[in-house]
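SAMPLE LOG
Freezer: B-3
Tube label: C17
Construct: single chain, 180 aa
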Amino acid sequence: MTFLKTTEDANSDLANYARLFTLRPNVYEAWQVLAAAAHEGMDERRYELVTLAAARALKSSYCGLAHGKTLREKFYDTETVQAIAVKHDEAGLDPADIAIMDFAGKVVRNAPGITQADVNGLREHGLSDDDIFQIILTVGIRCFFSTVLDAAGAEPDAAYRDSIEPALQQALTFGRPIER
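STRUCTURE (predicted):
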């Protein structure tokens, strides 16, 4: 559910985020194009890690649950995703992934505080300027989407209760609880 009345009734099979965007489908379509362009050519696992780090910093349960679920389905076991969600620097990730997630979180929390040293730190892990810019763009589009969902009161869909183990649900619920 959301705080806003949408053009779809409450019993719709649409996800809550999709129901919300029935108010402005052109904005959702534009966001999809921008999001695809921002991370075009980016490794999918990296994209999911960056997105999860941004969701955690934004306190976005919806995005945390969605992208944590993808990480579990495609890249890691449940325990590893849970560890990444809680304290990624102690989850057994390689140093480059830790640096990427640290950087993504810092972009959310303090974009003006990003320094040349932060960028150079990523370069030391083999990232190119294009790689670094993709991370920044990915965080930026996540900030838009997560902020819109949370400000409109979009709750993570109840379906997450059935598709994600309870302990992992808890680790990925950074803000709003899952819909009842």
